[in-house]
Amino acid sequence: RTASFRLVLQGMRLSVRPRSDHSGQIVLQAETIDEVQFEWATMLFWRACASRIIGLIARMQDRFEGSILQSHYSVDGQEADAQRAHFKEVKANIDSYCIPRR
CB burial class (10 A; 0-12, 13-18, 19+) of residue 96? Predict the structure, then answer.
């Protein structure tokens, strides 16, 4: 039998960014109230969450291949190219403000 555990989240952000056709970066940030006061229990909780979230995203990829959603995103043409260029520019602008320069 498994234990039950509740955790209060004051804020949470999940960022999933593709790096190539076969790899990506997943970042999870969460602000919590540590009511348990046992660091090992909190770490165990977040490791379990991370392993389940990554597995869920990986399983979704198999359903994406050949789906209606993929055909929507794989459209070619001048309008689609303009939209892709626009969103790449938006991402570059966000990165330039958010990522610290070295």
Answer: exposed
